[in-house]
Amino acid sequence: MAAISLQNVVKRYGVGPKANQVIHGVNAEIADGEFIVIVGPSGCGKSTLLRMVAGLEDISSGTIAIGPRVVNDLEPAERDIAMVFQNYALYPHMSVFDNMAYGLKIAKVPKDEIQARVHKAAKILELGHLLARKPRELSGGQRQRVAMGRAIVRQPQVFLFDEPLSNLDAKLRAQTRIEIQKLHRELGITSLFVTHDQVEAMTLAQRMIVMNAGRMDQFGTPEEVYHTP
Ligand code: ADP
Ligand code: ADP
């Protein structure tokens, strides 16, 4: 069974004659544990596609399933996903620990379970010594790791990354890319990663979805995508 299944997914913004169709029937089956990059130029619909998987946008028609469940009508919190954004706004008044724990507290996860999950994530991300700090006392790279920690502690079935590296400088971008690869090696969580950067896509992708004007042009390994005539 696919970890994520997209069947004839269509998105229109607006209704009637003025409707603008931005996703034209995307089909994709993503296997458990795969790291998939959605790549394509600005405005091609990458973010819209990801946000539909997240439940942040309604789909106009088609079906999205995560694991065995069709999620079309489920709220984001019910979808067993965690999302990492470009703007990883941390709560400035909260410690690193509390920033990572916050979503779990809201979800009423028991305290000892929260402790265990935050410490495990902190270990993976090498944040263990920084748990008592406030975001302003961290470097940009450390902040980005806290943002990833916040996603990891949810123990989601799927990670969704929306251009998480695009606000970082070149050095930090490279470091964080390695961090994300390490995370995927250790946790093996099915991931959808959106970027407009082809180098980033080739480095991270096990398979890539190449979008163009709302359509899926290609879906394959980087070798397949770049060596097809
Ligand atoms: P990408 O992530 O590839 O840059 P987007 O998914 O953000 O592309 O956008 C795809 C298309 O949908 C663009 O033409 C964009 O203008 C349009 N679009 C995105 N969000 C909205 C919205 N809320 N209302 C109307 N059109 C939108
Ligand atoms: P509260 O009931 O006030 O929300 P908790 O009992 O969850 O607090 O934990 C007390 C506080 O101690 C947490 O809010 C957190 O800031 C901090 N804390 C807990 N464990 C650690 C830790 N291992 N490292 C740093 N801070 C921690």
Main beta sheet: strand number and arrangement? Answer: 6 strands, mixed
Low-confidence stretches: none
Task: Give the distance, in angstroms, between the N- and C-terminal Cα atoms.
Answer: 31 Å
What are the bound molecules?
A: adenosine-5'-diphosphate
Work out the radius of gyration: 18 Å
How many strand units? 10
Count of runs of 4 or more consecutive helical residues: 7
Instruction: Give the overall shape, derived from the CA principal axes.
Output: globular
Order of strands, main sheet, comes to 6-7-8-3-9-10
Q: Give helix % range.
A: 25-40%
N-to-C order of helices and strands: EEEHEEEHHHEHEHEEH
Say what oligomer this is.
Answer: single chain
* Category from helices, strands and their pairing: alpha/beta
Strand proportion = 25-35%
The overall pLDDT, averaged over residues, is: 93
